Amino acid sequence: MPETDDPLGSEPEPDWATKLTFSIAGEVRRHRARLGMSAQQLSDKCAELGMPIQRSVLSNLESNRRTTITIAEILVLAAALQVPPGVLIFPAGYFNYAEVTPGRSVPAQAAVGWLAGTIRFGNEDPAFYHSHPFFKVRRHDELGSASTARTRSTPVHTTTSPQMKRRILTMALWNIRVYPMSRRSNCGQLRRKLATWSERSFRSNTPVID
């Protein structure tokens, strides 16, 4: 018989996807215990939320007999366990690092931020990354909050600061993009001017994971 490096026939190392499922299962077990819930109570709670997950399925998941989990199951389990979905996937606060893709580990807190869109990887093209409407909506909300806070906390001045001009310009462009009727006005120059500035702003406001 040919010689082998594993004469005892032990289990091979799980692949990345399987290890990720095992990690999620461990977090489900951790947070269920933290709430003092039984597997049946968690199953019942998932059913209340509109997606039944049988107790036997949960038992197989937590004992690592099940090697896959769906996004829908993660979302419902997170809601039932009263935690953000990101901390089930990447256990920030319990582990220092998380393997976000095969062979690539980053700080666990940063991994959760990547899921939330607050952090990007250094190898991602910033122009393409920030072209998604999500970042424009987020930037609009940030500018709106900043503008409201400024209005409440500072007196009104007759001279508009460069930062406020940018905020006004950004919100004007947002209205143009969201409400098609406003495009009937002669505002093409405004769109071009702010599109250039907005892209630079989005690139600089998102932290990068190297």
Keywords:
2 domains; mainly alpha; globular; 59% helix; 434 Repressor (Amino-terminal Domain); 10 helices; two-stranded antiparallel ribbon; 210 residues
What does this structure look like?
There is one protein chain. This protein folds into two domains: 16-116, 434 Repressor (Amino-terminal Domain), CATH 1.10.260.40; 126-209, no CATH class. The protein is 59% helix and 6% strand. The protein has helices at 16-35, 39-48, 55-62, 71-81, 85-89, 108-116, 126-129, 133-153, 162-178, 188-205; strands at 97-101, 104-107, 120-121, 208-209. The strands form two sheets. Strands 1-2 form a two-stranded antiparallel ribbon. A two-stranded parallel ribbon has the order 3-4. Helix 8 crosses helix 9 (162-178) and helix 9 crosses helix 10 (188-205). The two termini are 48 Å apart.
Care to give the gist of this entry?
The protein is mainly alpha-helical and 210 residues long. The protein has ten helices and four strands.
